[in-house]
Design brief:
With 115 residues, this protein is mainly beta. Helices cover 0% and strands 56% of the residues. A hairpin with a 5-residue loop joins β5 and β6.
């Protein structure tokens, strides 16, 4: 069974940094596209960043140059390094694993950026 567990959220001042982690089980990074999404109250869930099985990355325009997605196959974990955080980055962040039409979500972790 595909499972994802996020950690690392919290409260940070604008300009600060946080690193989110997502521990996986039940699938291989070589088969699934993995990614981070976020959802703020009243907004739709949106893509933040993702990595394809081949290692190609994609970022939302709003986070380019500030966020970095990575994966560690030995640790079975993916990460989202978030730098230069802004109040508008405040949201619940979810990791996801996708294979074709199948998507598995983690439970989410809250990130709050104070001004």
């Amino acid at each position: 069974e595909v499972q994802l567990v996020e950690s690392g959220g919290g409260l940070v001042q604008a300009g600060g940094s946080l690193k989110l982690s997502c521990a996986k089980s039940g699938f291989s990074f070589d088969d699934y596209t993995i990614g981070w999404y976020r959802q703020a109250p009243g907004n739709q869930r949106e893509l933040v960043a993702r990595i394809s099985p081949g290692g190609g990355t994609e970022y939302a325009e709003s986070v380019k140059g500030r966020f970095s997605i990575s994966r560690d196959k030995t640790q079975k974990t993916m990460y989202l390094q978030m730098n230069s955080l802004k109040p508008e980055d405040t949201a619940t962040y979810y990791c996801a694993a996708t294979l074709g039409s199948y998507v598995r979500w983690g439970q989410g972790t809250q990130v709050t950026v104070s001004s």
